[in-house]
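About this split. The held-out portion is used to measure sequence recovery: a designer receives only the structure tokens and must propose an amino acid at every position. Recovery is the fraction of positions where the proposal matches the reference. Here is one held-out target exactly as it appears in the evaluation file.
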């Protein structure tokens, strides 16, 4: 099991999509990526419901508008911030999935910079916190 802060889901998903992996490591990545994308869809629906319940609306550009009052705006911003700081839990679909992914990421030889480097670090951190490191074999 690994836990990923909701605010980091998108960057980790983007990194995983673009990572050059082969064989079973690619398969394991795809399983995790599918779970992350499903969670992001669920969170987007939750956020839309929170916006609607607050009395605000989401315009065509995706911006939140038409707050009933300032208190509603502040409460909505707090609720949305709270959701982004929560962690989502992901379980292995295949035994050894996260350990194999961790080892492959340790050996990942593609150059990384900027957002990819940060997402790589975030992914490694959640794998290590989940106990999936070189010692777990």
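Reference sequence for scoring:
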């Amino acid at each position: 099991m690994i836990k990923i802060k909701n605010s980091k889901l998108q960057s980790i998903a983007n990194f995983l999509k673009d990572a050059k992996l082969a064989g079973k490591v690619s398969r394991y990545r795809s399983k995790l990526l599918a779970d992350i994308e499903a969670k992001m869809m669920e969170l987007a629906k939750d956020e839309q419901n929170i916006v609607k319940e607050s009395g605000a609306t989401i315009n065509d550009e995706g911006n939140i508008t038409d707050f009933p009052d300032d208190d509603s705006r502040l409460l909505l911003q707090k609720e949305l911030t709270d959701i982004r700081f929560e962690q989502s839990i992901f379980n292995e679909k295949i035994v050894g999935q996260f350990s194999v992914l961790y080892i492959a990421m340790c050996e990942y030889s593609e150059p990384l910079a900027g957002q990819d480097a940060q997402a790589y670090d975030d992914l490694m951190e959640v794998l290590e916190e989940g106990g999936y490191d070189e010692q777990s074999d």
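Annotator remark: Helices lie at 9-18, 23-54, 70-85, 97-106, 114-129.
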